[in-house]
Amino acid sequence: MLQCSVHFLDMPQKDPCQKQACEIQKCLQANNYMESKCQAVIEELRKCCARYPKGRSLVCSGFEKEEEEKQTLKLTPQ
């Protein structure tokens, strides 16, 4: 789980999208974990992830995996 109060002291660089990931956690906690209420902050994380090369942000790895799966589905003959 992402720790929002600690700045990854062991990591050589701070994750560039950590702030957005923490905002998602706060939003979900405040809204009883209803993802639909947090779409704006989720979109902000997606935008942040799009600004950095794949693998640069640990918190973006879930979106990267999601994109890979979408691409695989597009390439699979139906």
Automatic annotation (TrEMBL):
Entry-linked SUPFAM superfamilies: Cysteine alpha-hairpin motif (SSF47072)
Per the record, its GO cellular-component terms are: mitochondrial intermembrane space
Q: Which PROSITE patterns match?
A: CHCH
Q: Does the keyword ATP-binding apply?
A: no
What are the entry keywords?
A: Disulfide bond, Mitochondrion
Q: What is its main location?
A: mitochondrion
Instruction: Give me the disulphide-bonded residues.
Output: 17-48, 27-38, 49-60
**Secretion signal span:** none
Compartment annotation: Mitochondrion
Q: Which family does it belong to?
A: Belongs to the CMC4 family.
**Which PANTHER family does the protein's record reference?**
CX9C MOTIF-CONTAINING PROTEIN 4
- Protein name, please? Cx9C motif-containing protein 4
